[in-house]
Design brief:
CATH architecture of the largest domain: 3-Layer(aba) Sandwich
Helix content: 25-40%
Distance between the termini: 18 Å
Order of helices and strands: EEEHEEHEHHHEHEHEE
Strand content: 25-35%
Shape: globular
Radius of gyration: 18 Å
Strand order of the largest sheet: 6-7-8-3-9-10
CATH superfamily of the largest domain: P-loop containing nucleotide triphosphate hydrolases
Number of helices: 7
Largest sheet: 6 strands, mixed
Number of strands: 10
Structural class: alpha/beta
Length: 230
Amino acid sequence: MVHFEHVKKNYADGLCALEDVNLHVDKGEFVFIVGASGAGKSTLLKLILREELPTAGTVRVNNVDVARLRRREIPFFRRSIGVVFQDFRLIPHMTVYENVAFALRVTNAPVREIRKRVPFFLNLVGLADKARQMPEHLSGGEQQRVSLARALVNTPSLLIADEPTGNIDPAMSCDIVDLLGEINRCGTTVLMVTHQIPLVQRFGHRTVAISQGRVVHDGRIGGGSARKQS
């Protein structure tokens, strides 16, 4: 699903954000990505989403070499990836239903398909009764669930959750990771970036730790064996 082969990323200001990164995520895995601010996590995600190109090495997502994508192909490539952000990024003047439907409308999905899929995914995240609410009337956890429904409505094969629990309380954080786990068990590959080590320890998924642009750990935290870096 995601393959980094000896990837290096330098920026114009001379910053080396990633150095010789090898990372392989198979279809159906749930992987935590951890590391301090500035470690290279954001650059890793930008390469997966083809917001940046590697300076050296190869990045493949869904068997696509991202560096070979033409500009007009990038929006179609990104439709196979759902993204959940820390700050929710809901459209404030749209209802819950409209926020989720918007992700389908931009792909020119038929109205009949929108009417079918939006209620299904709102029900999946436990917000069927909030469809007509405005985002400002929802709790932080509920807003994050709307964001998750919006990311899932196009049935992506890969879901990237970028600090999805950063703005919600600890109890709700566990609920969000539980929900991501349910989605993963249905076949969606999940990459979750987080600073919350207690969450990582509690759920026990494979964890990739990045420090100063390098992968320094790949395995389970607190148990299990680490993957060998080539």
